[in-house]
Amino acid sequence: QITLKESGPTLVKPTQTLTLTCTFSGFSLSNSGVGVGWVRQPPGKALEWLALISWNDDIRYSPSLKSRVTITKDTSKNQVVLTLTNMDPVDTATYYCGHRPPTASGCYFDYWGQGTLVTVSS
Amino acid sequence: DIVMTQSPDSLAVSLGERATINCKSSQSVLYSSNNKNYLTWYQQKPGQPPKLLIYWASTRESGVPDRFTGSGSATDFTLTISSLQAEDVAVYYCQQYYTYPITFGQGTRLEIK
Which of A28-32, B80-84, B86-90 has the lowest mean pLDDT? Predict the structure, then answer.
């Protein structure tokens, strides 16, 4: 049974760096083809893909955030960490992590965490 | 980036009736070497994460009721709910994974008439 859970601060100040952790179970990021990614959703708005890290350390970023975002993995801890620098109120959103199945041949998510709402405000 | 445009933005359908949601991509998401369309559909209910319904444009995820059907190819896709149930009230998103950055449609809100 695959589960994912996001954790991190619920409130950050403008210009600060956000660090979110996705802790997962039921799969290993060392398994061929597997990936974990991040998607965010501002309140009442659509989904926006942020980043993906794969089993072989291949990393993809959204070009719109590429200068601010970093994704890393700790396979031994079953964790993926997302950092987003220079936070702004427009970054207020629910942040989700998701499991990319090995059969995806691309990137979609078949399992998602419940999400964590991050508010950016002074 | 591939732009995904859904229509309509919102839709009200009577219980038991058919619901149809459209998704158009700004370029083809059909990969010629394997003849697969790199297109998924998700369902999102209030306060919940998205749920995968359909991948490869027409393959139903395990456990998804067969009243949900995905169709289309290249740039034009459709999600059809054959007989609307109360639990189908949600926002539906299409997403392309043909190329990075992966991109989502703006969502279609489905309600009961």
Answer: A28-32
CB half-sphere exposure, A105, CA atoms < 13 A = 13
Amino acid at A97: C
Q: Using beta carbons and an 8 Å cutoff, which residues of A are at the interface with B?
A: 39, 46-49, 52, 60-64, 96, 98, 104-110, 112-115
Q: How big is the A-B interface in CB pairs under 8 Å?
A: 58
B58 DSSP 8-state letter:
T
Report the pLDDT value the prediction gives residue B40, as an integer from 0 to 100: 98
Amino acid B96 reads: Q
Percent of chain B with pLDDT over 90: 100
Closest residue on chain B to A112 (Cα):
B49
Do B98 and B80 form a contact (C-beta atoms < 8 A)?
A: no
